[in-house]
Write a structure and sequence with these properties.
The protein has 195 residues and is an alpha+beta fold. The chain has two domains: 30 residues; 153 residues, Immunoglobulin-like (Sandwich). Strands 1, 2, 3, 4, 5, 6, 7 and 8 form an eight-stranded mixed sheet that branches. The radius of gyration is 24 Å and the shape is globular.
Length: 195
């Protein structure tokens, strides 16, 4: 009886181990990038002064889109973030919408927590209206690996309008370039690799 009990226990352990291995084998591979959140809001132009007697202009408000994300691989050579911003001119008689698109590629990204940000110039906001929605799509080696929109939506609303390029700026194209420089990943210059 004792041999039979021991054999049954061993069989149960082996079955459970086999089940555990099957469950693990069915688990999807860890995603290389996961987005923790995307948010947007006003960001006042940073003021730099070289001389105390230098006159300062009035501070204007940019629109900042900030994405927090995690990377799983130990190193990633490149990650491309494509941003979409939907603005609506509330003062226009027909309440026109415009969809802006901007792209930034980061290089040599180490495993861990990161941030990405892009900006709309104050004049763009004044001319085209308030931001209604924003989205970010992250590609790695040409494959879409993460996507998020604010407000959250199951629809890909950014595919409904023709996007306008050139208005969403990466931080190196703005006065924010030197703020918290070490918090952000290195940006691949547009002229490298035909960009």
């Amino acid at each position: 009886m004792r041999k039979w009990s021991c054999g049954l226990i061993v069989l149960m352990i082996l079955c459970m181990a086999g089940l555990s291995l099957d469950v693990l084998a069915q688990q999807p591979e860890a995603r290389p990038v996961s987005i923790r959140g995307i948010k947007g809001g006003k960001a006042a132009t940073p003021q730099y002064s070289l001389l105390k007697s230098q006159a300062t202009a009035r501070t204007r408000n940019w629109f900042q889109i900030l994405t927090q994300y995690d990377t799983a691989p130990e190193w990633m050579e490149e990650l491309t973030f494509t941003y979409y911003v939907l603005a609506r001119d509330k003062q226009a008689t027909q309440r026109t919408q415009v969809l802006f698109r901007g792209e930034v590629t980061y290089v040599t990204i180490q495993k861990g927590r990161h941030m990405s940000d892009m900006y709309l110039h104050p004049s763009t906001i004044a001319r085209y209206g308030e931001v209604e929605a924003m989205a970010v799509l992250v590609t790695f080696k040409g494959q879409l690996v993460a996507m998020e929109s604010q407000p959250a939506s199951q629809q890909r609303w950014w595919e409904q309008l023709a996007p306008v390029d050139g208005f969403i700026l990466n931080r190196m194209e703005t006065p924010f370039a030197m703020i918290d420089f070490d918090v952000y990943e290195a940006i691949k210059p547009r002229w490298v690799g035909g960009r």
